[in-house]
C-alpha cells in the first residue's frame, strides 16, 4: 500500500502543489500539512483521502508558493512608522546604531499576510488537483500490486508443487507401516490373525492419511488465486485464506511420519510465511 502522487495547480499570484505519500498500515492514519487558506477545508480533504485510499498511513502536504506581487505580504506602514519613530528616539538617547528598517521588519504584525480563504471556484480547482494526485498515487499502488501478485502467484505455485510431491511419499509410508507392524509381530514370535492384522494396518493408515488435508489445501490455493484475479480490496480475505492454508499445512506436518514428507512441509511453510508478509501490503 505504499505510493506517491503529486499534482500542481496554478492560481492567480500563487502555485499550489499537492503531494500524497502512503505507507502500509492496518488502520487509516491521515496526517495533513496545510497552509493558512486551506485549513478551513481540512475536514473535506480528510474525507476525500479516506474515501479514495481506504486505509494506510497517509501524509498529504499542500504547498502554496507566491508567484505574483498581488499575493505578497503587505507592510503595515502606519505600525512600521510608529516602530521607526520609537527606535530612532531610543537610538538618539542612547547613542546606539544599527539597521532600524531591518529591525522593524522583524517586529510583530509589521508584515501582514495577504492570505485569504479559498473562494468556491478556487476550492473546486483544488479538489480537482487533489483527485489528480490521488489518481497518480493509485496508479503507483496498482503497479506495486501487479508486482505483488506476480510474487504471490510464484509462492502459490511452489506450495502447489509441494502438494503434488506428497503423493509419492504416501505409498512409501503405507509400506513402511506394514513392514513395521510385521516386524513387531516377528519379534514377538507369535502367529497373528491375518484379519486382525489387516484391521490394525487400516487403523494406522487412516491415522496417517492426508487426503482431506490435500483436498482442502488445494481448494484454498484455488480460492486465493480467484480472489487475486477479482481485484479490489481483498487484503483481509487473502489474510483469512492464508491462515486456513497454514492449518492444513500444519496438519500435514503432524501426520507426516516421514523425513522426506516433513521436508516438503517445511518448504511449504516457508513459502506461506512469505505470502503472509506480502498480504499485509494489500488493501
N-end to C-end Cα span:
7 Å
Largest sheet: 4 strands, mixed
Helix content: 55-70%
General shape: elongated
Sequence stretches where pLDDT stays below 50 over 5 or more residues: none
Query: How confident overall, as mean pLDDT?
Result: 83
Task: Give the helix tally.
Answer: 9
Within the largest sheet, what's the order of strands? 1-2-4-3
Going by helix content, strand content and strand pairing, the class is alpha+beta
Strand content: 5-15%
Give the tally of structural domains.
Answer: 3
Q: Any overview of this molecule?
A:
The chain is an alpha+beta fold and 283 residues long. It folds into three domains: 3-70 and 119-139, 2-Layer Sandwich (Ribosomal Protein S5, domain 2); 74-112, no CATH class; 141-279. The chain contains nine helices and six strands, in the order βββαββααβαααααα. The longest helix has 45 residues, at 120-164. The chain is elongated.
Q: What distinguishing features does this structure have?
A:
single chain, Ribosomal Protein S5, domain 2, 4-stranded mixed β-sheet, two-stranded antiparallel ribbon, 9 helices, 6 strands, elongated
